Amino acid sequence: MAEDWDMYVDWNPWHGCTKISAGCLHCYVFRQDEMYSAPTRSDIIRKTANFNLPVKRRRDKTYKIASHKVIFTCFTSDFLHPDADSWRQECWDMIRQRSDCIFYFFTKRIDRMAECLPSDWGNGYPNVMVGCTVENQAMADLRLPIFLQLPICHKSIMAAPILSDINLRPYLSSEIEEVAVSGESGVNARVCDYNWVLNIRQQCIENDIAFRFHQTGAFFLKDGRTYRIHRKHQLSQAHKANIDYKIGRYFVPETIKFPWPDDTYHPGKDLSE
Question: Taking the model in full, what pTM does it have?
């Protein structure tokens, strides 16, 4: 399915974050900033030059981001971070304007979502998918009850980086469209135990919810042996495990209906005009 990777676009309207739970310990944002000697501290949230990327246009007036893309939103920060409160409404406006694309963000601050929603949110924008991140049982029990009560059209649980076995059964209602599991990357990564991954997969199958094994992480424990997985192979090795369940085209749950007829998708073609 490599031919479908051009389906995805990254949009980081702001950059930087602050650590709030165990999953943040070896945050990739901090690691990358250090690697590239970023001039600003990673815990200082600041707008990026791509703040208005979804509505930028070319000289011919077409959008720089073509129609029918899945836009990964704010993956170098947290979309619900309080330091971005004054900018978020502009983002909601752009998301509403680009109803021809799907916007996907995940957050460790799901407790803030209700106060961060736009006035016309209603039961949720149909082109927005929200992932609630849980790295262990404590965070699952804290965040997921809040998540389930929120009006969101497309809900995903992100067990990432998974740090322990997690029982998600109390939270796998029909509102959850996907559960994804990832190990931790980086030289100081904590081990991802394949048994944890398989356990969550089984829970999803029992509840007929889509499951995706997204990446192995840097240290992967399987059958009593810990493997060191190079960063460039962590996605492909997870895919080779062939344990995804009800994951369809473009690596999204089969239940997700794109806001356009499937047979109209043409990579790179702008159909928004």
Answer: 0.90
